[in-house]
Amino acid sequence: MLAEQKLFIDGRLTDAASGETFATINPATGREICRVQRAGAEDVERAVESAARGFATWSAMTGALVADLAVGRAPRFDAARYDPLRFGAKAADADWLKRQVSAIVSSGYRNLGR
């Protein structure tokens, strides 16, 4: 099983205010892949406040600078080299996880700049 997944709020990984988690299940095997922090109203409020602060910075930038930061300097995730087993996944879940990560990453890069 993978390590417990945290929320990403205000530029860092954090636990949910409630401490509650939920299971992420591999639909092919029915087995639990990992536990994920369950965001609640307090967590959403922290995320919205962080986004509002970030908007002030981003909205003051030129489009060219935003594009450079988003595409030009952003580290690329190499899905072909991603190894779920390295992160503690069971062998039966590894192929499914790799396909999911690859699809998410390629989808995200296709949508940059839209």
Using brief descriptors, characterize the structure shown.
single chain, 114 residues, alpha+beta, two-stranded antiparallel ribbon, two-stranded antiparallel sheet, 3 helices, 4 strands, 15% strand, flat, disordered C terminus
What does this entry show, briefly?
The chain is an alpha+beta fold.
Report on the architecture of this protein.
By secondary structure, this protein is an alpha+beta fold. It has two domains: 1-60, no CATH class; 76-114. The protein is 43% helix and 15% strand. It has three helices and four strands. The strands form two sheets. The chain has a two-stranded antiparallel ribbon. Strands 3-4 form a two-stranded antiparallel sheet. Strand 1 and strand 2 (12-14) form a beta hairpin. The longest helix is centred in the C-terminal third of the chain and has 20 residues, at 91-110.
Ordered list of secondary-structure elements with their pairings:
Blueprint: E1 7-9, E2 12-14, E3 21-25, E4 32-37, H1 41-59, H2 63-72, H3 91-110
Antiparallel strand pairs: 1-2, 3-4
Helical fraction: 40-55%
Backbone structural class: alpha+beta
Which runs of at least 5 residues are low in confidence (pLDDT < 50)?
109-114
How many domain modules? 2
Please, how many helices? 3
Q: How would you sum up the major sheet?
A: 2 strands, antiparallel
For the largest sheet, list the strands in their spatial order: 1-2
The number of distinct β-strands equals 4
Please tell me how large the radius of gyration is: 17 Å
Distance between the termini: 35 Å
Element-by-element helix/strand order: EEEEHHH
Mean pLDDT figure: 75
Beta-strand proportion: 5-15%
Please state the overall shape, judged from the principal axes of the Cα atoms.
flat
